[in-house]
Amino acid sequence: MLLEHQGKRPRIHETAYVAPTATVCGDVIIGAESRVLFGAVLVAEGGPVSIGRYCIVMEHAVLRGTRRHSLRLGDHVLVGPHAHLSGCSVDDSVFVATGACAFNGARIGSRAEVRINGVVHVNTFVPPGTTIPIGWVAVGDPAEMLSPDQHERIWAVQRTLDFSQTVFGLDRPPDGETIMPEVTRRYARALGVHRLDHALGHHLSRDF
């Protein structure tokens, strides 16, 4: 399904393929010979999504551009099933495996691999050619690779990257308090504009 969002429509190269059950919403560009498979979601939530040439976005992957952080894939990038990329930049020839995640402000250098269920945290830079092992967490600039059992070390670096400000635009609350009411109010307000989206079906003029 192709959707116009806030007056912006997807632009899909004539040689690209988008599966009938994929959702492509708003200011999304899909480059030559790229493939977006069944159940994948590409949505420009206030910030654009740009997919390069010969990219493969597999089943049920979610790629999201945000108001503060657009999303960009270079050329020859493979995004595996159930991967989640939000507001990040991915250079050429990167492999993002099944279930992997990269968060807002992250940058993944060319030829890097984020293996199954790997995580690239907010504002983290993964240098070119780096491999993030299965289930490990990359955090920091440049990235430090840590196994998931090293929570205290991950948190020590992550805290300096300011997830709350990067993703929600809010300061982290004091211990014993929560920002979730304000987070959900903001999300409800921002996401409510989807009520005005216009379905374009699956046939769109391909204008580049």
Account of the protein in words:
The protein is of the alpha/beta class. 14% of the residues lie in helices and 31% in strands. It has a ten-stranded mixed sheet with strand order 23-22-19-16-13-10-7-4-1-24, covered by helices on one side. Strand 22 and strand 23 form a beta hairpin. The longest helix has 12 residues, at 180-191. The chain is globular, with a radius of gyration of 17 Å.
Q: Assign a percent range to the helix content.
A: 10-25%
State the CATH superfamily name: Hexapeptide repeat proteins
Low-pLDDT stretches: none
CATH architecture: 3 Solenoid
Highest-level CATH class: Mainly Beta
Instruction: Kindly estimate the percentage of residues that lie in beta strands according to DSSP.
Output: 25-35%
Shape by Cα distribution: globular
Would you tell me which CATH topology applies? UDP N-Acetylglucosamine Acyltransferase, domain 1
Number of H/I helices: 3
Largest sheet: 10 strands, mixed
Class of secondary structure makeup: alpha/beta
Strand tally is 24
Measure the end-to-end span. 20 Å
Rg over C-alpha atoms, rounded to the nearest angstrom: 17 Å
Give me the strand/helix succession.
EEEEEEEEEEEEEEEEEEEEEEEHHHE
- Count up the domains: 1
Output mean pLDDT: 93
**If strands are numbered along the chain, what order do they take across the biggest sheet?**
23-22-19-16-13-10-7-4-1-24
